[in-house]
Specification:
about 15% strand, 10 helices, alpha/beta, single chain
Length: about 375
């Protein structure tokens, strides 16, 4: 079912001798994007030079969420926000470890009353600041505050064109928020859509991707699990949509995606997972886990995490790796796929697979 979209409002004509507001905004955004790209290239260069520091960390300042998507297990409706001073301590320690990218996850992080200060603290460490949000609380003034705080990247997952019992993150609900972002955001915006797992209308992913690209955003596509949390090969219709979205978005910002074909076919990958080393998941309690789906392993407070632990986990093989679907860990681990064979093994939770998400439980992000 198509969604009615509206063009952005027209702007008044500028005074003689001045640049139009849209032109000034375009120039500012291009300058910020160029600066961001240089910082990102520097972070990748540093990662290639040495392996003793994390490349990315996900931190959770707020487990509570305003939604209740049935595939997600990373939220509740009762938790209080983590105290801002505690968040600053955790971020500072990630900075001391040399973390290049710190992404704020949830729950719904926009519920945190001091989110702007969280972003500022990330930028103070020199890290790139990212945010994963459902987008419901975005308004022009809120976007302006995120600009001022120094946010670099935002991702919003949109699961369908029309809301249903599985997810309310629909294009119908969020299109107005996307137009606000196109008008006001100085940071990079990525929109993630989904196929698989019994989604009622796989063609929605193509509609969502086209809308994202039309608004000037990047777009990714994810594979959602079935109701039992298992990853299944894509059906013919789903595969057609998946291939078409990938064709449209092949110029997306991340290219470390060789693992995706096996995931789409429901097959294992042969790779070296660097979770606990290059990638850290810091939950709302401040505990470091391999990822959102392997909570408790290694189960060390971020305040006690050391460079020696980073080095140890770099060479630790995780038994859940072959069937893991967590895209960000795959992509980050790819930086080091050519070096340092892993010589010790751990089975997190006794699990044989990581049935998780690139950025939100239940999804594997595909670009």
């Amino acid at each position: 079912m198509p969604v009615e979209t509206q063009p952005a409002p027209s702007t008044p004509k500028p005074a003689p001798g001045t640049l139009p507001a849209t032109r000034r905004r375009t120039i500012r955004r291009r300058l910020l994007a160029a600066q961001r790209t240089l910082r990102e290239l520097g972070s990748i260069g540093s990662a290639l030079v040495g392996t003793s520091h994390p490349y990315m960390a996900h931190i959770v300042p707020m487990r509570r969420c305003n939604l209740a998507c049935t595939y997600c297990n990373e939220y509740d409706d009762v938790s209080n926000p983590v105290d801002i001073e505690e968040m600053k301590r955790r971020i500072d320690h990630l900075g001391r470890l040399g973390t290049a990218v710190i992404t704020i996850s949830g729950g719904e992080p926009l519920l945190h009353p001091d989110l702007d200060d969280v972003i500022r603290q990330i930028r103070k460490t020199g890290a790139i600041a990212g945010l994963i949000t459902n987008g419901y609380f975005l308004m022009p003034d809120r976007i302006a505050r995120l600009n001022a705080a120094g946010l670099d990247h935002m991702q919003i997952s949109i699961d369908n064109v029309m809301p249903d019992d599985v997810s309310k993150k629909s294009l119908k609900v969020l299109d107005a928020k996307l137009r606000m972002l196109a008008e006001h955001a100085d940071f990079h915006v990525n929109i993630n859509s989904v196929v698989g797992g019994g989604t009622a209308h796989p063609e929605d992913a193509l509609t969502i991707s086209k809308r994202a690209l039309a608004l000037g955003f990047s777009s990714t596509i994810g594979i959602i699990h079935d109701g039992s949390g298992q990853l299944k090969p894509l059906g013919e219709k789903e595969r057609t949509v998946w291939d078409e979205v990938r064709r449209l978005t092949r110029r997306s910002y991340s290219r470390f995606n060789g693992f995706q074909e096996a995931i789409a076919n429901g097959l294992p990958n042969d790779w070296r997972c660097r979770a606990g080393s290059r990638y850290l998941y810091v939950d709302e309690m401040g505990m470091v886990s391999y990822c959102s789906q392997q909570r408790g392993y290694p189960g060390i407070p971020i305040s006690e995490y050391t460079t020696e632990i980073v080095k140890r986990e770099f060479t630790t093989e995780k038994s859940c790796a072959p069937n893991c679907t967590i895209s960000c860990v795959h992509q980050i681990s790819y930086i080091d796929h050519w070096r340092a064979p892993q010589h010790s093994t751990i089975t997190p939770g006794g699990a044989g697979h990581g049935a998780g998400a690139a950025t939100e439980s239940g999804l594997v992000q595909i670009q």
